[in-house]
Structure formats: structure tokens, C-alpha cells
């Protein structure tokens, strides 16, 4: 007999390419982690302390489609890599950080840019623009044992066949080990945590019916339809 007073919500999970499911605990997202993207968003690209916001675990969307969200008329694509942790802790050294990585996946950080802009102007949190239903379309997790660690490689996004975002993972201001180490100074990281890497320049709006194709060297590509 259960002591839970309502049905237990399902665990958010992402398929693993070689089989099985990865259960998700938390989703951390780094902001403005590519200099060119910082510039296009009106900010100084100089290296400063990183900052993070969160999405909800069940915002990770494995359906292959992206439902255009309510209360927005300016939704943008942001091509990213998701880092999946198999272990964690506090005050993790950058030299040890990659030992905690289970694998990587293609991911999109979809953004209600108009609502994010209103929140920024008012000095409020970004979640209304970032952490909405199905806002992180994600592909299967590729294990480190199969793809290695992704510290370089081209990342692109085509919208309806037209190249919009084009960068390299080596252009990240804060690399994966540094992100893990920094987060672990402020949070206790744990198995099931996911970190989104930030996006290169070229973000822009999508409309219903659009097809977004993200590709990263070593992870292949995936196409997400806006519905």
C-alpha cells in the first residue's frame, strides 16, 4: 500500500542510442557560452563568470516534433549539445569532471524570445521564456564509450534546408569540464543531471510547419518539425 496521496508522476527519461533509458533529475543550461551569440544578443563576449538557468526534466522532448507554445509570437531555435551525468558531487575539479559524464546528445533550447525579453527588462527570472512544455527537443544519448568526449566538432542548424547556425564546439567560452566544476561549487550534482552547452550565433524565429535539422560531428543529426 502506497503512502503517496496522488499518483506518482512519471520519471522523465531520454533513450540511450545503444539501448535503455536515461532518467533525468535536473536540467541546467548555460547562457551566452559562444562569443558570437553573446554579441548578437547585445552583450560583451568577454569571458566572465558563467551563469545558468534551469529547464524542467520533462521539458526534454523526445517526440521528434516541437509544439509551438502558447502566449508567444517569437519563438527561437538554439542548437546545443546536452551533457548527461552518471555521477556527481560537490567541488569537482575540472581535471576530474569528465569522469562524471555518461554521454552526449543533440538538443535544442527553444526560447519564447518575446517573453524572455520582457523578463530581462523587468529583472525577472527567465523561466517563462525558457522552461515551458517540450522546450528542449533532444535526441538519443550517445555513451562516452562509443563517441568519446566532444571538445570540438562542427555544430549546425538548418531551418527548412537553409543554414542558420554554424559553429564549432571548441568555440565554447566555458568548456564541459569547467561547466561541471563551476556548477558543483553551487549545487550538489548527481546521476541524472543534464547540462545544456549553450548555442552558437544565428538563432532566429520558427513558425508552424518549419523543419529544424541540428547536426553535431560525432552525434549525427536530427530533424524536428514545428507543429
Give the helix/strand layout.
Layout: E1 13-15, E2 21-23, E3 26-30, H1 35-40, E4 52-55, E5 60-61, E6 65-66, E7 75-77, E8 79-85, H2 94-97, E9 101-108, E10 111-112, H3 113-121, H4 127-130, E11 136-137, E12 142-143, H5 144-147, E13 154-159, E14 162-168, H6 176-186, E15 193-196, E16 204-205, E17 211-216, E18 220-226
Parallel strand pairs: 3-15, 5-11, 6-18
Antiparallel strand pairs: 1-2, 3-4, 7-10, 7-16, 8-9, 8-15, 9-12, 13-14, 13-17, 17-18
Question: How is this structure best described in words?
Answer:
The protein has 6 helices and 18 strands. The protein has 227 residues and is α+β, with helices and mostly antiparallel strands. A 6-stranded mixed beta sheet has the order 4-3-15-8-9-12. A 5-stranded mixed beta sheet has the order 6-18-17-13-14, with no helix packed on it. A 3-stranded antiparallel beta sheet has the order 10-7-16. It is globular and about 40 Å long.
Rg calculated over all Cα atoms = 17 Å
Which residues sit in consecutive blocks of at least 5 with pLDDT less than 50? none
Shape: globular
| Order of strands in the sheet with most strands | 4-3-15-8-9-12
CATH topology: Fumarylacetoacetate hydrolase, domain 2
Tell me the CATH architecture: Alpha-Beta Complex
User: What is the H/E order?
Assistant: EEEHEEEEEHEEHHEEHEEHEEEE
Going by CATH, what is the homologous superfamily?
A: Fumarylacetoacetase-like, C-terminal domain
Q: CA-to-CA gap between the ends? A: 41 Å
Strand content: 25-35%
Count of β-strands: 18
The mean pLDDT is 94
How many domains, as an integer? 1
- Main beta-sheet annotation: 6 strands, mixed
Query: What percentage of residues falls in helices of 4 or more residues?
Result: 10-25%
Number of DSSP helical runs: 6
Class in CATH? Alpha Beta
Structural class: alpha+beta
Amino acid at each position: 500500500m502506497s503512502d503517496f496521496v496522488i499518483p506518482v508522476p512519471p520519471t522523465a527519461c531520454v533513450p540511450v542510442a545503444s539501448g535503455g533509458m536515461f532518467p533525468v533529475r535536473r536540467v541546467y543550461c548555460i547562457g551566452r557560452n559562444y562569443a558570437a551569440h553573446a554579441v548578437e544578443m547585445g552583450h560583451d563576449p568577454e569571458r566572465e563568470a558563467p551563469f545558468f538557468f534551469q529547464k524542467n526534466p520533462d521539458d526534454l522532448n523526445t517526440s521528434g516534433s516541437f509544439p509551438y507554445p502558447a502566449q508567444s509570437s517569437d519563438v527561437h531555435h538554439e542548437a546545443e549539445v546536452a551533457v548527461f551525468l552518471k555521477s556527481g558531487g560537490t567541488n569537482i575539479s575540472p581535471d576530474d569532471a569528465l569522469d562524471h559524464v555518461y554521454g552526449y546528445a543533440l538538443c535544442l533550447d527553444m526560447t519564447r524570445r518575446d517573453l524572455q525579453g520582457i523578463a530581462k527588462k523587468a529583472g525577472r527570472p527567465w523561466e517563462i521564456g525558457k522552461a515551458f512544455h517540450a522546450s528542449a527537443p533532444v535526441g538519443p544519448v550517445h555513451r562516452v564509450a562509443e563517441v568519446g568526449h566532444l571538445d570540438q566538432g562542427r555544430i549546425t542548424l538548418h531551418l527548412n534546408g537553409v543554414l542558420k547556425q554554424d559553429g564549432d564546439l571548441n568555440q565554447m567560452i566555458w568548456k564541459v569540464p569547467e561547466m561541471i566544476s563551476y556548477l558543483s561549487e553551487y549545487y550538489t550534482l548527481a546521476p541524472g543531471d543534464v547540462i545544456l552547452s549553450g548555442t552558437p550565433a544565428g538563432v532566429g524565429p520558427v513558425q508552424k510547419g518549419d523543419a529544424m535539422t541540428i547536426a553535431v560531428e560525432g552525434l549525427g543529426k536530427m530533424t524536428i518539425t514545428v507543429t
